[in-house]
Design goal:
By secondary structure, the protein is of the alpha+beta class. It is about 40% helix and about 20% strand. The protein has two domains: about 80 residues, Orthogonal Bundle (Helix Hairpins), CATH 1.10.287.40; about 300 residues, 2-Layer Sandwich (BirA Bifunctional Protein, domain 2), CATH 3.30.930.10. The protein has 13 helices and 18 strands. Strands 1-11-12-13-16-10-9-4 form an eight-stranded mixed sheet. It has a three-stranded antiparallel sheet with strand order 5-7-6. A hairpin with a 4-residue loop joins β12 and β13. α3 packs antiparallel against α4 and α7 crosses α12. It is elongated and about 110 Å long. About 35% of the residues are buried.
């Protein structure tokens, strides 16, 4: 959500920056509403001045014994006009709030201007893709051949875009969750939380998924509960309608399953487990002061990258251009891991600074001296578990179809090589 006063006072600059986003909002309605509101307030002020003058005159005439009944009727009529105009201003303000709720965040000045993912800017690349002396396979072949991944039974149980993990495949998923949580809590300074996996509509409004992106979510019938699309939603809403009573930054991490309808992704990554309706993630969430949030974004991104470094997986980090950013974000880094089975880098984490956009929607404040102000919120995957699973299986595959387990995971998995059972 935007600050209405800020939006008015810097309208041209904000409009210019928003115009660089994908599907930029039409701000003509804002100008029209603002004009109506200003006109109603101006008329109200004029009527109040007239009412005060009339009331003063009525008081003077009464002292002289004059009949003031007609003038009193006029004053009552003015009061009714003022009340009607006040209601009109309230209605316009409500329309303003509805309008602002659908306008995306303003890209930070450091975000490159561009139309789509082709205009994203690479900021670093770590590790070299492995050179194979055989033709590497994709995980959708390797997993079933090893007996650790089953798409057919998952489709029978539920439907398309679901997966069933077997044996060491399931254990690898669990090992990755524990490994990531341990690194982030023991070495990166995050506090682990385990939130609900269902949230209410107000929580989804707070982080920006509602009302605009309802079709991307799964809603439980006959309730106000929704399955979470990411731990960002429940963890950010921990402090909804609160003033944070702690030194900032507050750093939280959580494991959760995630559920997405993928309504806008038909035809993309339909094979394998890159884009599923249900998947697991370890999420990093921060609450920061405005003057520290961009430093915290760099640190959060580095924390997510550290997981890939420890696993020995090649990756690159890109800053998203204005045309490829998410609705609530002011700046986003995407971390993309190399997948040899697809001969491409694929996103494994998005790390974003939302500035005060989410905090204003969710009323999350912190103490700043004697007053309080909106916190800046940040989050990023640390990492997406399924895609990390894919990256390990494809990057560490051997000619005989086995998978070497990265050293960092061996204490969690209990084996050095995953072979066909």
């Amino acid at each position: 959500m935007h600050d209405l006063a800020q939006f008015r006072s810097h309208f041209d600059q904000i409009a210019q920056r928003l115009a660089t986003r994908s599907n930029p909002p039409n701000l003509d309605q804002f100008r029209e509403l603002d004009s109506r509101r200003r006109a109603a307030i101006s008329q109200t002020e004029q009527l109040k001045a007239k009412k005060n003058a009339e009331s003063t005159e009525i008081g003077r005439l009464k002292q002289q014994g004059a009949d003031t009944s007609e003038r009193q009727k006029e004053v009552r009529a003015i009061s009714e006009q003022i009340a009607a105009l006040d209601e009109q201003v309230k209605l316009v303000d409500a329309q303003f709030n509805d309008l602002l709720a659908g306008i995306p965040n303003v890209p930070h000045e450091s975000v490159p201007v561009g139309k789509n993912s082709e205009d994203n800017v690479e900021v670093r690349r770590v590790g070299e893709p492995r050179r194979f002396d055989f033709e590497p396979k994709a995980h959708w072949d390797l997993g079933p051949e090893l007996g650790i991944l089953d798409f057919d039974r998952a489709a029978k149980i539920t439907g398309a875009r679901f997966a069933l993990y077997w044996g060491l495949g399931a254990k690898l998923e669990r090992a990755l969750i524990n490994f990531m949580l341990d690194v982030h809590t023991r070495e990166h300074g995050y506090t682990e939380v385990l939130p609900p996996f269902m949230v209410n509509s107000q929580s989804l409004f707070g982080t920006g998924q509602l009302p605009k992106f309802a079709e991307d979510l799964f809603k439980c019938e006959k309730t106000d509960f929704w399955l979470i699309p990411t731990a960002e939603v429940p963890v950010t809403n921990i402090y909804r309608d609160e003033t944070i009573d702690a030194d900032l930054p507050v750093k939280l991490c959580a494991y959760t399953p995630c559920f997405r309808s993928e309504a806008g992704s038909y035809g993309r990554d339909v094979r394998g487990i890159i884009r599923q309706h249900q998947f697991q993630k370890v999420e990093l969430v921060k609450f920061a002061r405005p003057d520290q949030s961009y430093d915290e974004l760099e640190k959060l991104t580095a924390d997510a990258e550290d997981i890939l470094r420890r696993l020995g997986l090649p990756f690159r980090t890109v800053v998203l251009c204005t045309g490829d950013m998410g609705f609530s974000s002011a700046k986003t880094y995407d971390i993309e891991v190399w997948l040899p089975g697809q001969n491409a880098y694929k996103e494994i984490s998005s790390c974003s600074n939302f500035e005060a956009f989410q905090a204003r929607r969710a009323s999350i404040r912190f103490k700043s001296g004697k007053k309080s102000e909106y916190a800046h919120t940040l989050n990023g995957s640390g990492l997406a578990i399924g895609r990390t699973w894919v990256a390990i299986v494809e990057n560490y595959q051997q000619a005989d179809g086995s998978i070497v387990v990265p050293e960092a995971l061996r204490p969690y998995l209990g084996v050095e090589v995953i072979r066909k059972a």
